[in-house]
Design brief:
alpha+beta; 7 helices; 20 strands
């Protein structure tokens, strides 16, 4: 029986070591450290994952190279048979193993994606995976740092409330050398609030009445939250009466009804009035204090040109110094003091200027008495000092 020869079959004994190595190398993928490779998960251990990438040995992904999340369980990250991408860290470590990193491969892809959004000014979204000193860590394919001061429009007391939630933020800083990505959720909220403010402003018209909440009080007035935008009630618009400080009329957190006085679209400012939602006491002033009426009032303030008198209901009128007495008056203190009750006659009511002119001497004439004018301090003393001089002159 003749031997059958097949030219396509050869004996390994006829192949040299060099030729054998060349044959094996031809079936192995060539790559360098830092390259991205794709492989299949063939085994999952508690602290590492084995990946077949077509190399002479399986690649090893240590647990800390699986995810940007600390102490991630390998079984929660990958499953056997998964096709994943990894970066070559070391072709051969001390034990001759091929070390790979899924985390760094994702980081490379994520960095390019996040950098593109950064340049375009677009937002990124990720889950809050850690609460660290000074802020939060977001999983956006890489570790993004969200400072505590940029988490919300106002300072957040408990950052732990955000743990596990998904957050939309704006990339405000990227540094590849330091692997540093800084995020701002406040920028996103401010942008949304600005759009909301513009919409609200476009709908507001002078004369409208709205309900709001006093958000803050300052020396010159009170800010009211109208539901997404604040308006200012100037101290002069808080009450028809004189107000020394806004806290006399409103308190922080108080719900109030206000009237829109003015809307400045360019400066995004709203002027509000609180007193306009109540009756103006001056409207009934003409009926209650007609010209010629004599009423009782209390002196509230003395000035060089006269005295202010409270007529009740927060209405004050002025007695000019020339209307205090029939005699000459140098200073109002010669006639009255703060807190004195006295009769005054209404001389004129100016509704436009919201002024009422009063007269003490006219009331005294009508009621039949004379207003006493006290001498200036020092007048009596000067007269006493002059008497001895006159006696000495007579003696001569």
């Amino acid at each position: 029986m003749s031997e059958i020869q097949n030219s396509s079959i050869f004996s390994l004994d006829d192949v040299s070591d060099e030729e054998m190595n060349n044959l094996i190398d031809g079936t192995i993928t060539n790559f360098d450290e830092g390259d991205l490779v794709t492989g299949t998960v063939v085994k999952i251990e508690h602290d590492e994952v084995l990946l077949d990438i077509g190399y002479k040995s399986e690649g090893v992904i240590p647990q800390h190279e699986l995810s940007i999340r600390k102490d991630a369980n390998p079984e929660d990250v990958v499953a056997r048979g998964d096709q994943i991408e990894a970066m070559v860290i070391t072709k051969e470590d001390k034990e001759g193993r091929l070390i790979l990193s899924k985390r760094r491969a994702e980081y490379e892809r994520a960095w390019k994606r996040v950098e593109e959004k950064y340049q375009l000014g677009e937002n990124v979204e990720g889950e809050v995976i850690e609460v660290v000193k000074g802020g939060l860590i977001l999983d956006i394919g890489l570790r993004g740092f969200l400072p505590a001061s940029l988490v919300d429009l106002r300072r957040v007391k408990d950052l732990n409330a955000y743990l596990g939630t998904r957050v939309e933020a704006r990339v405000i800083e990227m540094d590849r050398n330091r692997n540093n990505v800084v995020l701002s959720r406040r920028a996103v909220l401010e942008e949304a609030r600005k759009a909301e403010r513009s919409e609200i402003l476009s709908k507001l018209k002078p004369g409208m009445r709205l309900k709001g909440t006093v958000s803050s009080i300052v020396d010159f007035g009170a800010f009211v939250d109208l539901g997404g935008i604040d308006g200012l009630i100037h101290i002069s618009e808080l009450s028809w009466n004189h107000v020394n400080h806004p806290s006399e009329v409103v308190k922080q957190g108080q719900e109030v009804e206000v009237q829109v006085l003015d809307v400045d679209l360019n400066r995004e400012r709203i002027s509000l009035g609180l007193k306009q939602t109540t009756d103006d006491p001056w409207k009934s002033l003409v009926k209650k204090y007609p010209a010629g009426a004599i009423v009782e009032g209390v002196v509230t303030k003395l000035v060089t040109f006269g005295a202010f008198v409270d007529l009740g209901d927060g209405v004050e009128g002025l007695v000019h110094i020339s209307e205090m007495a029939n005699k000459h008056v140098d200073v109002p203190a010669q006639v009255c003091s703060v807190g004195d009750k006295m009769q005054v006659k209404v001389m004129e009511v100016d509704l436009d200027r919201r002024r009422i002119s009063l007269s003490m001497k006219a009331a005294a004439e009508t009621l039949g008495y004379e207003v006493e004018v006290k001498p200036l301090e020092g007048e009596d003393a000067s007269e006493e000092r002059s008497e001895p001089k006159d006696e000495a002159a007579d003696a001569e």
